Amino acid sequence: MNITTPAIVDRIDFALTMTGAIVAGITEPDLAEPSLCAGWDLRTELNHLVGGMRIFAAELTHTDPGGAHHDDWLGANPQAAFTTAATLDRAAWHRPDALDTTIRLGFGPVPGPLGALIHLTEVLVHGIDLAVTTNQQHLIDEPASAHLLTTVRAMDFDTFRRPGLFDPQHPAPANAAVHQQLLAFMGRSHVD
């Protein structure tokens, strides 16, 4: 995939829509369940995702995100918080100069196209995590998972494998669905 084209923005749109449908099905008790991200519960993972979306949107629009990545972004209504973040995020990626922007991330600045790929990975993979944990696998888009898996396998992804980013790759189960292969590639040890 050529990540310098607007196609990456379309993929972010799709990932936001898919993940939004998954978030809509999360219940209050679900938020206390362990996440596929080691040491997190679902609320922590969803909050991480929403905070990241708000920070990416602020980076792209040169505004203040209104908080740090792991502040409480969810408040009393996680679904509304996700919807607000997705609206801001989508609008920011659709700015004409979005892919020409240098994006400052926790590990340093990256060019817009790489930032878009990192963001797509965050939204899609965390969405899949949430779906698996809440038994909403029917909402996972396997072609989107396959496209991302092909893309990340083709790059030097090991540069992102460090504490706080991505764990080492795990083996996927025999005959694993594509989304399970993607989760295993991203370092999730439990991908059923």
Annotation, overall tally of beta strands:
2
Major β-sheet strand ordering: 1-2
Strand content: under 5%
Structural class: mainly alpha
Q: How many separate helices?
A: 6
- Global Rg: 15 Å
Proportion in helices: 40-55%
CA-based shape: globular
The succession of helices and strands, N to C, reads: HHHEEHHH
Distance between the termini: 28 Å
Largest sheet, strands/sense/barrel: 2 strands, antiparallel
What does this structure look like?
With 192 residues, the protein is mostly helical. The protein is 50% helix and 4% strand. The chain is built from 6 helices and 2 strands. The chain has a two-stranded antiparallel sheet. A hairpin with a 2-residue loop joins strand 1 (102-105) and strand 2. Helix 2 (42-61) packs antiparallel against helix 4. The longest helix has 22 residues, at 112-133. The protein is globular, with a radius of gyration of 15 Å. The mean pLDDT is 88.
